[in-house]
Every structure is written in C-alpha cells, then in structure tokens.
C-alpha cells in the first residue's frame, strides 16, 4: 500500500480461544497498537462499550482509530449510542456494515451517522431525523 501511495486499513479484531471478550479494553487496546506498529494508516477495532474504556484505546494508538459496526443491533438508539461513544472517546470515524446494510432504511441511517461523524448531530438529533423521515 505504501509503495502505491494507498492508505492501509488494518482490521484488528481480538479473537481466539484465550480471549474472554473481544470487547475487553486490554485486548482491543493491544490490537490497535499492533495495527499501528504494523504500519497501518488507520486501525479498525471493536468498540469496547464505554467512552472511558474506548478513550484508552484511542490514546494508546498513534494512528487514527475507527470502530467496526459490531453485532447486529436491535434498535437505532443502540447503534447511535455506540457511534456517539466512540466519537466522544476520540475515534476518527466509523466503518459500519450490517447495521447499515440490514437497516430498514439504510439511506436514512447513513445520513444520520454522517451528521454525527462530520457534523455536530447528537443521538437525539439522529433519532428525531429518523422519525421525521419515516
């Protein structure tokens, strides 16, 4: 990637028989750091579940950190709270698959997430926007 001047995204997921939880801050923080040390330009990891613990991940990684979308969520508020928490912790952005593609209104949820990442929209703003556009 570097030879071709192309950014490298490292998807660093903590999995394996000795991993108690793939969302545990100590594992996620370590995985993010390994991704950076392997010369990734951007590191994608699981969200640890709280602003405080995810801030540890972001602060421990010298490269921009983004979150994966994780398991399929049941509600919009779960998804938006995850995005909000990651951003408050210092995440550079998000990379969400199934929770967008399998959403009942993918184009609407993308607009909301975009406004959260690149604007100043809150979870409440996003929920209101989703309700208004439905």
UniProtKB/TrEMBL annotation:
Gene3D superfamilies: Aldolase class I. It comes from marine sediment metagenome. InterPro entries: Aldolase_TIM, DeoC/FbaB/LacD_aldolase, DeoC/FbaB_aldolase. SUPFAM superfamilies: Aldolase. One of its GO terms (molecular function) is lyase activity. It holds the Pfam family DeoC. This is Fructose-bisphosphate aldolase.
């Amino acid at each position: 990637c570097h030879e071709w001047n192309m950014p490298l995204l490292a998807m660093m997921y903590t999995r394996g028989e000795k991993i108690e939880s793939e969302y545990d801050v100590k594992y996620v923080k370590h995985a993010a750091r390994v991704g950076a040390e392997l010369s990734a330009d951007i590191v994608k990891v699981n969200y640890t579940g709280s602003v405080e613990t995810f801030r540890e991940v972001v602060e421990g990684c010298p490269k921009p950190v983004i979150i994966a979308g994780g398991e399929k969520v049941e509600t919009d508020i779960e998804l938006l709270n995850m995005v909000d928490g990651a951003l408050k912790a210092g995440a550079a952005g998000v990379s969400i698959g199934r929770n967008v593609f399998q959403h009942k209104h993918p184009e609407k949820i993308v607009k909301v997430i975009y406004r959260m990442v690149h604007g100043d929209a809150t979870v409440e703003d996003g929920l209101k926007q989703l309700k208004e556009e439905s």
